[in-house]
Inverse folding.
């Protein structure tokens, strides 16, 4: 029983990193009804930006890497919007899908060429903190990631429901034509959505780097896959859904690993995805309505 | 007078033309090149191996070229030109790359990085040399990195200069048993989806540890891209073995070591995979890897080895057991090419490849950076090795068993 609880706890805490990536996927989908497949790579790219800038200016405090990752993520988010969405006809759903796949590969290659493919150490926070209750233990750094993802969700919900930008974003998400008729600038809102998700992505990348203890180009593809699963399971466009699904997928993953072994683990996670696609295609928190 | 002037002008022009031709001929002779193709993973998961191999190949070729190059059958000298191809550590890509290389004027290839590429790639080479019924590719491949045990026997055209892990781990576990008699049990950690890591644990480490009298208590498994090792390390902790042997590449080795530190798993002895005795591991987790013992066929312990490492660094590569095998391969091939007396002419490229293969097959011993390497009839090497351990961010020699 303790093994089971420990596996669930480890998985749920690590699932917070999936949740952070899922939030980015779902926010862009909620606003534009498009998938940005480069999101996880851009998030890791943001974290790399922070690290590289920190390496260039020796003596900077370690916390600066998180701030720089946050800003770097926002800049990359804006660049992704410009290159993959702004100049590409949005009417064709495949064009943006393909452009973001291209961007994923491009970011991956830039990371690989900049770092020669070598994993880079990333400053950890609370890395040596373990909360113990007898045999049961919890990682301090993952609790921090969990806390940050909850705070990120709260901040995003406040932004969406308590600001003019949020109002405009929701208007564009629900009725883009009507929103434009009301004077909302569609392109501006879309660009700001990418910057906001980019900022969050940079933070997510930094948190992932801190919890893994290193940044590597190896992280981008698995995070993209997990982010997509989380988005579908949580419900496309639902931010609370992304959080819950992230934790759920992390927990399931670890339980499957405990009972079925590492080689079958991903098989069951994929089966979970198919179960949702067939029996609950809207995900846990299906979002009603959409753009016309 | 006018006739004399015309004759003189013609003579000068002829002499000038002849001189130009001679000069250009001389230049042509100087510019003669022998192409050696390198190939391996320069992208993807194990990119650093390809990057380091390429740097070592270029560095070794540069050293040889600065000393005049390689001697051909007609007595002239040719420079060695290295061209490196990326196979992305993918079997299909690797086969495509070797076919592409065979279509060039390269006389021999050094590579690949990954055993999962080497195995099928050797399979498309002609199995028995001279077998007219076998239409397999007739091209010599001299492997520097792909380390899985016993691959060269697949084809007469395949040769390797990789360490013999069976011998190395056999020696390591025997030494551990002798010097640490209190150490009795072993538990493994294995990167389950990578051919080398998997084979090294199940075929080499596990069997050799048992042969030396260790009680194998099981193994934890993870995948090459994994980032969360909590469950696996809990299994290690439960096993409470004296020795933990991690058969994984640097990225996940570091992830596991960090998790071991968090969970307070401190085995009496920590053993690592040959490929992890690299700079990458120390850059990723020097503190957690402190004390980890690895058998390796390279360490900068003598003048030649230090020189090879420093020269490779100038080409932006790190020296480790794999990249230094690439360095050695170029020098071995220089001698082989000279012994084989190849012409180096484009028209003779296939004949030259055959001569190189035959000469490589005859080699019984070569001089490497750590001493003499014996070669067997299957095309495999028996390289000298030593045990290193991580100490304060460096790989230091722990024991030389030879």
């Amino acid at each position: 029983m303790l093994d089971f609880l420990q596996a669930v706890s480890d998985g749920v805490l690590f699932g917070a990193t999936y949740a952070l990536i899922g939030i980015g996927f779902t926010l862009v989908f909620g606003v534009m009804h498009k998938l940005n497949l480069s999101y996880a790579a851009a998030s890791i790219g943001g974290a790399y930006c922070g690290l590289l800038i920190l390496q260039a200016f020796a003596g900077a405090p370690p916390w600066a890497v998180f701030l720089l990752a946050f800003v770097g993520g926002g800049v990359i988010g804006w660049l992704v919007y410009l290159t993959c969405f702004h100049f590409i006809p949005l009417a064709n759903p495949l064009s943006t899908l393909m452009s973001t796949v291209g961007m994923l590969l491009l970011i991956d290659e830039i990371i690989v060429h900049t770092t020669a493919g070598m994993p880079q150490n990333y400053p950890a926070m609370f890395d040596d903190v373990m909360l113990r209750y007898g045999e049961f233990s919890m990682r301090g750094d993952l609790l921090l990631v969990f806390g940050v993802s909850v705070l990120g969700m709260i901040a995003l919900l406040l932004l969406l429901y308590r600001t003019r930008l949020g109002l405009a974003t929701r208007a564009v998400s629900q009725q883009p034509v009507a929103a434009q008729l009301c004077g909302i600038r569609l392109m501006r809102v879309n660009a700001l959505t990418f910057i906001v998700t980019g900022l969050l992505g940079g933070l997510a990348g930094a948190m992932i780097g801190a919890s893994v203890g290193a940044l590597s180009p190896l992280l981008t593809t698995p995070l993209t896959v997990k982010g997509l699963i989380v988005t579908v399971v949580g419900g496309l466009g639902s931010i609370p859904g992304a959080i819950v699904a992230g934790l759920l997928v992390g927990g399931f993953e670890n339980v499957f690993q405990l009972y079925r072994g590492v080689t079958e683990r991903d098989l069951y996670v994929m089966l979970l995805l198919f179960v949702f696609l067939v029996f609950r295609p809207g995900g846990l928190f299906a979002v009603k309505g959409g753009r016309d | 007078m006018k006739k004399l002037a015309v004759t003189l002008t013609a003579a000068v022009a002829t002499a000038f033309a002849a001189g130009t031709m001679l000069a250009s001929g001389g230049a042509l002779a100087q510019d003669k090149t022998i192409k050696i193709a390198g190939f391996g993973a320069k992208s993807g998961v194990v990119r650093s191996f390809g990057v380091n191999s390429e740097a070592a190949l270029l560095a070794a070729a540069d050293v040889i070229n600065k000393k005049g190059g390689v001697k051909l059958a007609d007595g002239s000298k040719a420079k060695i030109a290295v061209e490196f191809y990326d196979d992305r550590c993918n079997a299909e890509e690797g086969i495509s790359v070797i076919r592409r290389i065979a279509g060039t004027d390269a006389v021999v290839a050094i590579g690949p990085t990954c055993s999962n590429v080497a195995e099928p790639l050797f399979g498309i080479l002609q199995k028995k040399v001279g077998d007219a019924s076998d239409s397999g590719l007739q091209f010599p491949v001299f492997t520097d990195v792909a380390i899985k045990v016993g691959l060269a026997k697949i084809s007469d055209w395949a040769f390797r200069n990789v360490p013999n892990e069976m011998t190395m781990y056999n020696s390591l576990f025997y030494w551990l048993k002798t010097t640490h008699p209190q150490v009795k049990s072993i538990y493994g950690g294995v990167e389950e989806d990578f051919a080398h890591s998997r084979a090294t644990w199940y075929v080499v480490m596990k069997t050799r540890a048992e042969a030396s009298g260790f009680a194998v208590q099981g193994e934890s498994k993870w995948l090459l891209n994994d980032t969360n090792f909590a469950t696996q390390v809990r299994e290690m902790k439960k096993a409470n073995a004296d020795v933990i042997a991690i058969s994984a590449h640097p990225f996940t080795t570091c992830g596991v070591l960090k998790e071991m530190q968090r969970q307070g798993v401190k085995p009496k002895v920590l053993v690592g995979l040959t490929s992890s005795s690299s700079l990458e591991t120390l850059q990723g987790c020097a503190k957690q890897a402190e004390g980890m013992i690895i058998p390796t066929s390279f360490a900068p312990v003598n003048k030649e080895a230090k020189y090879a490492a420093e020269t490779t660094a100038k080409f932006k590569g790190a020296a480790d057991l794999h990249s230094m095998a690439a360095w050695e391969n170029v020098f071995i091939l220089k001698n082989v090419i000279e012994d084989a007396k190849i012409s180096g002419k484009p028209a003779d490229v296939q004949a030259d490849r055959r001569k190189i293969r035959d000469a490589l097959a005859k080699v019984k011993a070569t001089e490497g950076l750590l001493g003499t390497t014996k070669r067997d009839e299957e095309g495999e090497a028996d390289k000298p090795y030593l045990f290193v351990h991580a100490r304060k961010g460096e790989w230091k020699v722990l024991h030389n068993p030879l």
About this structure: The two ends of chain B are 85 Å apart (CA to CA).
